[in-house]
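Retro notes - structure team

What went well: the batch runner handled both jobs without manual restarts.
What didn't: labels got mixed up in the shared folder, which is why I'm recording both outputs here explicitly, each with its sequence directly above its tokens.

Job 1
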Amino acid sequence: MGEERRCFSPKRAETVRLPFLPAPSTRLDPALRNTPYGFRFRFFTHARTQNVKYSNELKVGLTIVVTVIVFALGFRFLSNLPLLQGSYQLHTRLGEANGLVEGNPVRISGVQVGSVKKVALSPGQDAVKVVFRVDGDVKVPEGSRTKITGLSALNGTQLTIEPGPRSNPPVKSGGLIPSKPQTDVLGNLSRRTPDLINHADSLLLNVSAAMRSANETFEGASTLLSDSDSDLSRTLKAVRQSTQALRRVVESQDHRIDQVMKNTEAASSDLRAFTDENADSLDVAVTRLNGAMRSLNDNLASLDTTTARLNTITTRIERGDGSLGRLINDSTLYMRIDSTAGRLSFMLEDFQKNPERYLDEMTLVEIF
């Protein structure tokens, strides 16, 4: 035992010199077990073992604490929650979810202030209950209302809060915020679009056929009126029949025109509501649609007016009113005009051949 070590005695607060202590794994000689050296050996061996045990337990504990903290921060980050800021829960009831799912943002005036926590049917299954979180520093005043905005097809659905008066007290945690009634614009449009397209196609085909018939009628009437050798009376009767047929076609489509106008008005109203809630860019499309329908109405009104005027003209011609009616119905007048034209032509030819015959009868003053 030539080497000595300095150690602290548990019984006396003094430093003593002890013989060299073997490693904890070294066994104590049974002959030294009950000696002072044996007592000191067992004491320091136990102390070393306890220190190692406490050190391992401390490491395990610190590892568990750090893991829990990292997991909690990661969960809040993936849930779109502030990492170090508190939040509170509110809920609302909606008629339809319209693509709203857990994790969608909650916005006030376009600024995200929280996220949706849960979307489920209410106990009575007559509404959709939405539970959402709001940042702790954001106060939602009473009188606020919620609505779903955005397009689910574009993965842009969000829960929007329209805040109430700022003077109202804030809604407490767990409180209910009523929802704002909203219209499923895309659903209404998708349901009405096929009928609208079918009516519009049928209407356009009928109008196109009517316009072609009118053009053919006008061209035929113009050709017949310019040909003095044709039977004008029979032609005008055919024109009148075509006009009446055209009027019947237009009148038969009145109910379809009314249906198209009703569907168009409903679609325009839905589009305007959708535009006010979501995007100003749809105003251009609505304006163009209204302009197209107004143009179509103007064309139909113009066609109806033209048809009525043509019908009036043909009726007066058949009755013999006016010069054209007399010319068509009174053959004597036509013969007189033809005779007068022949005589005038003969006189002009004679004037060209013998101008002196006529000039002798005129004085210089009468000529100039």
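Job 2
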Amino acid sequence: MLHDDVETLRRSSAAWRLLRADTAPLVLSFLGTLFVEENVRAIPETELVARLDDHLFAIHRSAGTLGAEARYPRTPQAYVDHWAHPEQGWLRAWYPPGSAEPHYDATPAVEQAVRWVATLRGRAFVGTESRLNTVFELLRQLAVGTQTDPAERLRELEERRSRIDEEIAQVRAGRVDVLDAAAQRDRYQQLSQTAADLLSDFREVEANFRTLDRGLRERITGWDGAKGELLEEVVRSRSAIAESDQGRSFHAFYDFLLDRRRQEEFAALVDQVQALDAISTDDPRPAPEHRRLRRIHYDWLDAGERTQATVRTLSEQLRRFLDDQVWLENRRVMDILRGVEAKALAARDVAAAPGAATPPGMAIDAVAPEVVLPTERPLFAPRPSARVDSDHVEEGDEDFEVAALYDQVHVDPERLARTVRHALVSLGRGTAAVSLGDVVRDAPLEHGLAELVTYLSLDDPRFVVVHDEEATDEVRWLGDGPPAVGHADAPPDEIAAPDPVVRVARLPRVTFATRPAPGGPVLEDTRSPEETA
């Protein structure tokens, strides 16, 4: 260990700051009991302050320092705020979804400090055999698990089978090797310590996940490349978190915890071990370590679920963070578009001023280039001439309706345009707009549907025709009923006149509006006296 590394740890480590603090006994005793021994993973602020108040009262009463001479004179709320300050880093505060009250949890620094202080206690028994066996077993697993030669793997399995066969033969012969009391206590001590260390590691795993997520957010915030590359980086980083050594180890351990059969087997083995004479006679009363070990697998499951929930929350927050980034980008695009619109309106006002020249770059010949390639022009294809044979013409003898041949009408568009201009003057009442329905009510249709269609196709320099597809109007007029059927050779005066019927046409609303051209002609009644009458 280098001197500079130790100096850096002394300045930056939150666990070191905790051990150097004047209130270290208070912090370690209270936070260690609450978050380490009781395995509390989240506690509301009001409950945390209340429990700290009770803890301070018990300390001051036992020391006889109640009142102004108390060893810890600050309020419980002040201590909690001080411990959660980033400069200390002993408590992590956050707001759960749907809660307006902050919740607290201990940081990995508190776990490290509590474990280190616990190692300072003297131990009546220090076992080494079980740890040595663990070292050899881990070495054997590494050596065998990384062996790619099938012959070597087969040789190792055969040796293991030989040892098992020898042990089976000894048991059948009545020779059973049993661990002595010292070996039992040695292994039980290592079991308890490993189980407690495993539980305390969950906070560090959760903190490392948060660190990885924080680094990913920093890269997203400072990203200046393409959005596709950003999404690829996000997916790769999230996969890196899940595929990291820590992530794979945690998920494998969590899958082990979810196996109900393994949980039942673990509980049965713990009960069997704690019932041994060497373990139970060491302390006739159920020590806190014994009680905690009986339910340590439930604490593992709670801590693992807490870490899984943290990963899910981080993923959801990351998704919302990306959505916010996209929203900000869209807002920036809208700001740019509004700026372009404002400049375009300003340029329009400048161009509309009398005597003002068009600003350069504000006029274009077309909105898009028109490319016409010679190869796009089709080749000439002569039309075949139609041959008419008039030598064999036969006269037809079937009856058909011939009234339509004599009932040809012509609609004058100029007359309809004068009618619209008159309606704009008389019916518009200064609004410079009149609907087609008002025009037809004022001047009924004389030629039915043909005249109505001509209204829709009017093109006059003094007004425009506006079509509103979202509204519907009805236009009514009197038209001829179905014509009487007669012989084709019958004269028209012998055919009875049909009765008039009301015709109704439903069409999108049509409005005639005066053109807003400056200096244009003033609409006036241009109809002749005969038309007005």
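One thing worth noting from job 2: The chain has a mean pLDDT of 78.
We'll revisit the folder naming next retro.
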